[in-house]
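name: query_chain
kind: protein
chains: 1
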Amino acid sequence: MTIVDAEHLKTLGHDPTGGQAYIWTTHANTFVTVPVASLDRTNGSLTVVRKSKWMQLGAQDRYFLKNHPSQIDSPGDWAVQEQAGKFRVYFKPAALADLSAVEAPRETRRVLSVYRGRHICISGLEVVAAAKNGIELTQSEDVIISGCIVHGHGDMGILIRDVNEVTVRRNIVSSNDYGILLHAATHAVVEENEIARNAVDGLIVSWGSTDVTVRRNYIHHHLLWGHPDNIQLYCDVKNIRFIDNLLIGCGQSIMMSETSDGLLKGNMIVGSNAYSVIFGGRNAENYRIHNNTIAFSGYGCMNVTARDYDVRENVFMTGHASFLFVIRGVEGYVGDHNLLYNARGVVDKRVVASDKGWHRSFEDYRRATGYDRQSFYGDPRFCNAPVAFAVLDGRRLTDCSRSTFYLRKPAGPFQVGDTVEIDFDGVPRKVTQCAGEMIAVSPALRAKPLKPCLLCNWGESRDLSLDLRLTADSPGAKLSASGGPVGSTIDIAAYQRGDFNGDGKRDLPRIPPELEPKSD
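structure:
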């Protein structure tokens, strides 16, 4: 099978033969690692070993090269090459003397496993680099996992399967394939964890889990493979509460199906590729959605598809002209005392989609449906926030460069001179050009976008310290039924420092240097 990429392969500085190519077939949304057989610089093509006769490549598919010694350039980088039936490991240490302390004990299954245990406490461990799961608990009860750093695992960071009475508290779970999975867990608490930068989903609650509390967690940057979610629920999850969580940067923030009897309260949900909160499958039902702030979403803030939703005292803002939420084919919907807004300067906006139509004004929506009688449409006046939001067009990723991007919609809210932030990376960039759906920025990224990036437009500001609490003069400051503020009151900066209880002290373990995010 041949990959043709004349732009890069004709001038590639090394021969990747013997290494690997990681391929994303965009039409099927599948991902596979294949060996590299040969490079043809003249024609700008790469021959790779097909792993399945059904595997086909298309013009929009993406790939990157990996696992070759010539690509090693930073301390900690490594590659493995097979030579004459044996394997040689290449590794770059920070200093030559470090080689005496280097080992490669990669466990092929899981690092720490408990089966049918009782009264278990796992605390203060760094659990690293199993081919499968980091920590795995099965058919156990009365379990506490706290103060651990769990990273670099080929499947789950923490797997909780058929466990009763379990608390997962104050851990860092990062850079695994998946973060934490609760499978058939009962009486479970997941609190004050940082769950970040896993390849697919951050937190999964599934398969009959019941009586679950997820509170005061910082879950962020799940932007890579599959349909990445900060949180996902499926398969008969009941009686679950999400309270005071900070969710930033993802494909979808909370994706739900086959779940009932839940609460979302006090959460701050920021930045998604698709809808931020999805009550999907027409079977995610009977939820109370109170006092949340849901902002900057690619399609819209919320999509409800089943029945019985109580939606009160929230702040909804898309950052663009598209729907704030969709409530079509839904029975038992109640909404009031909410603050709604699209973005400044948008034209041809759509506010809500309901069974009564696509409402292009808040008044039309309220008049047609009878919902949100005491709600308000207007600028929330956050303490410090982007003025607009957009997502790259996944169909045009191959047209993008390190500095030129194509958006899903015309770049109307973006103007030359505006400050933009990409994927909530904290790096200010200036808009240098806008034309139709195209936007150019400086400085450029280190590499072309691999997936559709999230773009926050901060306007004239260069202060990217996100703070979505309401100012005193916000229209939501006295909008609640009791005359107080609506939305979430989470201090984003405190959560990002690992301070979940507001006492000014870090509640999490210190982050190892290898987990520090690399900024563009």
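note: The chain has four domains: 2-101, 106-250+490-520, 263-382+466-488, 388-457.
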